[in-house]
Write a structure and sequence with these properties.
Layout lengths: L18 H8 L5 E3 L15 E6 L6 H9 L2 H10 L6 H28 L1 E5 L2 E9 L2 E8 L5 E6 L2 H6 L1 E7 L7 E7 L1 H16 L4
Antiparallel strand pairs: 1-2, 2-3, 3-4, 4-5, 6-7, 7-8
Length: 205
């Protein structure tokens, strides 16, 4: 949670119109880390300041949670339905253990994807690291001056209940576009990006 005293000096300039709002909102909601300290990444410049770090909202993994919960119930239901007519108890115990292993794997994968998939917004660029598995990830980096358009959309009832959505960043002829799915407060994040893009295009960054 950011405090006004923790705002880097350069961002106290009124040209950064988003600062007051995101700092105020950070007191109410901790889903986005505002002006975090000690965030490091490749090619980070010495004078580069990190404005925010955000991850996917937990609702992105709602289906994973439901599946992980119900899979272990399948062997139990089979046992109750069969009444031991289709196999010994040890068979169902084995199925139950196997289902637990599958469920734990689903949960661990979801946690890894949530923790290590991040979007970092600095005063010079936006970076996105998406982790699909231990062996598969993607990295995207876009400078503000290359961005032409930013938009967001809603994703059903979750958008209204938890204020989550998808953010779309278009670089026009640059050939690199970026989509951030299930991010918290998409309108606020879009406002931050639009402000930084405008400043970059005006030569103020």
């Amino acid at each position: 949670m950011a405090q006004k005293t923790n705002i880097p000096k350069k961002f106290r300039d009124k040209k950064y119109s988003f600062v007051e709002k995101i700092v105020e909102d950070s007191h109410k909601d901790r889903s986005i880390d505002i002006f975090p300290k000690d965030v490091k990444f490749d090619r980070k410049e010495k004078d580069e300041e990190v404005i925010m770090v955000t991850r996917k909202h937990w609702t992105a993994f709602f289906v994973h949670i439901v599946i992980a919960f119900f899979i272990p119930l399948i062997p139990i239901l089979l046992l109750l339905i069969s009444k031991n007519s289709y196999g010994k108890d040890t068979t169902y115990i084995g199925l139950f253990v196997a289902s637990l292993v599958v469920s734990i794997n689903i949960v661990i994968t979801a946690v890894v994807q949530w923790y290590y998939s991040v979007a970092i917004i600095t005063d010079k660029r936006i970076l996105s690291l998406k982790v699909v598995s231990v062996f598969h990830h993607s990295y995207t980096e876009i400078l503000w001056r290359k961005i032409q358009d930013v938009g967001h959309d809603t994703i059903g009832p979750f958008s209204y209940l938890f204020d989550v959505g998808n953010l779309y960043i278009d670089t026009a002829g640059e050939g690199i576009d970026l989509t951030l799915t299930f991010i918290p407060k998409p309108r606020d994040v879009q406002d931050v990006i639009n402000n930084l893009v405008d400043l970059a295009h005006n030569g103020e960054l």
